[in-house]
Amino acid sequence: MKKQWVLATGNQGKVKEMSKLLNSFSIEVLAQSHFNVSEVAETGTTFVENAIIKARHAAKITGLPAIADDSGLEVDFLKGKPGIYSARFAGEDASDKDNVELLLKSLKGVDEQQRQARFQCVLVYMRHCDDPTPIICQGTWEGSITLEAHGDNGFGYDPIFWVGSDSCASAQLSPQRKGELSHRGQALKQLIEKLKVQLG
Predict the structure, then answer these.
(1) CA 122 to CA 69: how far, in whole Å?
(2) Is the pTM of this model over 0.85?
(3) How far is CA 44 from CA 32, 49, 54, 83, in A?
(4) CA-based nearest residue to 147, from 99, 102, 96, 112
(5) CATH number of the domain that 130 lies in?
(6) What are the backbone dihedrals phi and psi of residue 118, each rounded to the nearest 5 degrees, phi first?
(7) What stretches in the chain show pLDDT beneath 50?
(8) Is the separation of the CB atoms in 65 and 134 below 8 Å?
(9) What are the catalytic residues?
(10) φ/ψ (deg, to 5) at 158
(11) Residues 99-112 pLDDT 10s
Protein backbone atom coordinates (compact mmCIF):
# COMPACT_ATOMS: atom_id res chain seq x y z
CA MET A 1 0.00 0.00 0.00
CA LYS A 2 1.48 3.32 -1.05
CA LYS A 3 1.79 6.11 1.49
CA GLN A 4 0.39 9.45 0.38
CA TRP A 5 2.27 12.73 0.66
CA VAL A 6 1.05 16.15 -0.34
CA LEU A 7 3.08 18.54 -2.47
CA ALA A 8 2.28 22.17 -1.69
CA THR A 9 1.90 23.25 -5.31
CA GLY A 10 -0.65 23.29 -8.09
CA ASN A 11 2.12 22.76 -10.66
CA GLN A 12 1.56 19.32 -12.25
CA GLY A 13 5.10 19.35 -13.69
CA LYS A 14 6.55 19.49 -10.18
CA VAL A 15 4.16 16.75 -9.00
CA LYS A 16 5.24 14.45 -11.86
CA GLU A 17 8.92 15.08 -11.19
CA MET A 18 8.54 14.41 -7.45
CA SER A 19 6.39 11.30 -8.00
CA LYS A 20 9.07 9.74 -10.19
CA LEU A 21 11.75 10.32 -7.54
CA LEU A 22 9.70 9.04 -4.61
CA ASN A 23 8.23 6.04 -6.39
CA SER A 24 10.95 3.73 -5.06
CA PHE A 25 9.89 4.56 -1.50
CA SER A 26 6.28 3.43 -2.23
CA ILE A 27 5.11 7.01 -1.80
CA GLU A 28 2.39 8.58 -3.90
CA VAL A 29 2.75 12.34 -4.28
CA LEU A 30 -0.43 14.35 -4.79
CA ALA A 31 -0.81 18.06 -5.48
CA GLN A 32 -2.47 20.08 -2.72
CA SER A 33 -5.22 20.96 -5.21
CA HIS A 34 -6.22 17.26 -5.07
CA PHE A 35 -7.30 17.92 -1.46
CA ASN A 36 -8.75 21.38 -2.19
CA VAL A 37 -6.01 23.00 -0.12
CA SER A 38 -6.11 26.75 -0.69
CA GLU A 39 -3.01 28.81 -1.51
CA VAL A 40 -1.47 30.31 1.63
CA ALA A 41 -0.09 33.86 1.89
CA GLU A 42 3.71 33.75 1.58
CA THR A 43 4.51 36.21 4.33
CA GLY A 44 8.10 35.12 4.95
CA THR A 45 11.10 37.28 4.06
CA THR A 46 13.26 34.33 2.93
CA PHE A 47 12.86 31.25 0.71
CA VAL A 48 13.15 29.02 3.81
CA GLU A 49 10.35 30.80 5.67
CA ASN A 50 8.00 30.68 2.68
CA ALA A 51 8.67 26.98 2.00
CA ILE A 52 7.94 26.16 5.67
CA ILE A 53 4.72 28.23 5.60
CA LYS A 54 3.53 26.31 2.51
CA ALA A 55 4.50 22.85 3.83
CA ARG A 56 2.94 23.47 7.26
CA HIS A 57 -0.31 24.74 5.71
CA ALA A 58 -0.62 21.69 3.42
CA ALA A 59 0.22 19.25 6.24
CA LYS A 60 -2.25 20.89 8.61
CA ILE A 61 -5.19 20.75 6.22
CA THR A 62 -4.54 17.24 4.84
CA GLY A 63 -3.05 15.54 7.90
CA LEU A 64 -0.38 14.10 5.56
CA PRO A 65 3.39 14.58 5.35
CA ALA A 66 4.08 17.57 3.09
CA ILE A 67 6.78 18.83 0.75
CA ALA A 68 7.01 22.45 -0.38
CA ASP A 69 9.56 24.45 -2.28
CA ASP A 70 10.21 28.12 -2.67
CA SER A 71 12.49 29.28 -5.38
CA GLY A 72 13.51 32.36 -7.25
CA LEU A 73 16.20 34.30 -9.02
CA GLU A 74 18.80 36.55 -7.36
CA VAL A 75 20.56 39.16 -9.48
CA ASP A 76 23.73 40.60 -7.93
CA PHE A 77 23.45 43.99 -9.64
CA LEU A 78 19.90 44.37 -8.19
CA LYS A 79 21.14 43.43 -4.67
CA GLY A 80 19.49 40.00 -4.79
CA LYS A 81 16.21 41.04 -6.40
CA PRO A 82 13.73 39.73 -7.53
CA GLY A 83 14.47 37.02 -4.90
CA ILE A 84 11.37 35.78 -3.06
CA TYR A 85 9.27 38.06 -5.28
CA SER A 86 10.47 36.39 -8.51
CA ALA A 87 7.00 35.14 -9.52
CA ARG A 88 5.40 38.51 -8.83
CA PHE A 89 8.27 40.84 -9.73
CA ALA A 90 6.12 42.84 -12.17
CA GLY A 91 3.04 42.73 -9.90
CA GLU A 92 0.67 40.26 -8.23
CA ASP A 93 -0.83 38.82 -11.45
CA ALA A 94 2.27 39.25 -13.60
CA SER A 95 2.93 36.73 -16.38
CA ASP A 96 6.37 35.17 -16.98
CA LYS A 97 6.71 37.53 -19.96
CA ASP A 98 5.97 40.61 -17.77
CA ASN A 99 8.58 39.54 -15.22
CA VAL A 100 11.22 38.83 -17.87
CA GLU A 101 10.61 42.18 -19.58
CA LEU A 102 10.85 44.10 -16.29
CA LEU A 103 14.10 42.34 -15.36
CA LEU A 104 15.69 43.08 -18.76
CA LYS A 105 14.55 46.70 -18.44
CA SER A 106 16.04 46.91 -14.90
CA LEU A 107 19.39 45.75 -16.32
CA LYS A 108 19.33 47.93 -19.44
CA GLY A 109 22.84 49.21 -20.19
CA VAL A 110 24.44 47.03 -17.50
CA ASP A 111 27.70 45.47 -18.68
CA GLU A 112 27.79 41.70 -19.29
CA GLN A 113 30.40 41.27 -16.54
CA GLN A 114 27.93 42.69 -14.01
CA ARG A 115 24.94 40.50 -14.88
CA GLN A 116 25.74 37.56 -12.56
CA ALA A 117 22.69 35.82 -11.17
CA ARG A 118 21.64 32.55 -9.61
CA PHE A 119 18.52 30.50 -9.13
CA GLN A 120 17.87 29.37 -5.55
CA CYS A 121 15.54 26.58 -4.45
CA VAL A 122 14.69 25.63 -0.89
CA LEU A 123 12.78 22.37 -0.39
CA VAL A 124 11.15 21.53 2.91
CA TYR A 125 9.74 18.18 4.07
CA MET A 126 7.52 18.06 7.17
CA ARG A 127 6.23 14.80 8.68
CA HIS A 128 3.25 16.70 10.15
CA CYS A 129 2.29 20.34 10.69
CA ASP A 130 3.99 20.54 14.10
CA ASP A 131 7.22 18.87 12.94
CA PRO A 132 9.97 20.57 15.03
CA THR A 133 12.76 19.32 12.73
CA PRO A 134 11.70 19.65 9.09
CA ILE A 135 14.20 18.48 6.49
CA ILE A 136 15.48 21.56 4.64
CA CYS A 137 17.48 21.29 1.41
CA GLN A 138 18.88 24.06 -0.74
CA GLY A 139 20.08 24.05 -4.33
CA THR A 140 21.88 26.92 -6.10
CA TRP A 141 22.42 27.33 -9.86
CA GLU A 142 24.92 29.99 -10.94
CA GLY A 143 24.57 31.86 -14.23
CA SER A 144 24.03 35.32 -15.66
CA ILE A 145 21.29 37.34 -17.31
CA THR A 146 21.32 37.57 -21.10
CA LEU A 147 20.50 40.71 -23.11
CA GLU A 148 17.49 39.06 -24.77
CA ALA A 149 15.34 35.91 -24.54
CA HIS A 150 16.46 32.57 -26.07
CA GLY A 151 14.71 29.18 -26.42
CA ASP A 152 11.22 27.89 -25.65
CA ASN A 153 11.80 25.15 -23.06
CA GLY A 154 11.18 25.83 -19.39
CA PHE A 155 9.29 28.70 -17.83
CA GLY A 156 9.80 31.82 -15.73
CA TYR A 157 13.22 33.39 -16.25
CA ASP A 158 14.64 30.38 -18.14
CA PRO A 159 14.87 32.24 -21.51
CA ILE A 160 17.18 34.92 -20.05
CA PHE A 161 19.24 32.77 -17.64
CA TRP A 162 22.59 31.99 -19.31
CA VAL A 163 24.17 28.65 -18.38
CA GLY A 164 27.93 29.04 -18.85
CA SER A 165 28.73 25.30 -18.68
CA ASP A 166 26.48 24.57 -21.68
CA SER A 167 26.83 27.93 -23.48
CA CYS A 168 23.09 28.44 -23.85
CA ALA A 169 20.07 29.79 -21.98
CA SER A 170 18.22 27.55 -19.54
CA ALA A 171 15.24 27.54 -21.92
CA GLN A 172 17.46 25.90 -24.58
CA LEU A 173 18.38 22.90 -22.41
CA SER A 174 16.64 19.52 -22.67
CA PRO A 175 14.41 18.77 -19.64
CA GLN A 176 16.81 15.99 -18.65
CA ARG A 177 19.88 18.24 -18.76
CA LYS A 178 18.03 20.97 -16.87
CA GLY A 179 17.15 18.44 -14.16
CA GLU A 180 20.84 17.56 -13.77
CA LEU A 181 21.98 21.17 -13.45
CA SER A 182 19.11 23.11 -11.93
CA HIS A 183 18.64 24.46 -8.42
CA ARG A 184 15.49 22.33 -8.01
CA GLY A 185 17.27 19.23 -9.31
CA GLN A 186 20.06 19.75 -6.76
CA ALA A 187 17.65 20.32 -3.85
CA LEU A 188 15.64 17.22 -4.86
CA LYS A 189 18.78 15.04 -4.93
CA GLN A 190 19.65 16.21 -1.38
CA LEU A 191 16.09 15.52 -0.21
CA ILE A 192 16.12 11.98 -1.64
CA GLU A 193 19.45 11.25 0.11
CA LYS A 194 18.10 12.52 3.44
CA LEU A 195 14.84 10.61 3.05
CA LYS A 196 16.77 7.39 2.37
CA VAL A 197 18.28 7.77 5.84
CA GLN A 198 14.96 8.65 7.50
CA LEU A 199 12.80 6.10 5.68
CA GLY A 200 15.44 3.40 5.46
Answers:
(1) 5
(2) yes
(3) 20, 5, 10, 12
(4) 112
(5) 3.90.950.10
(6) -150, 150
(7) none
(8) no
(9) 70
(10) -50, -40
(11) 999 999 999 999 99
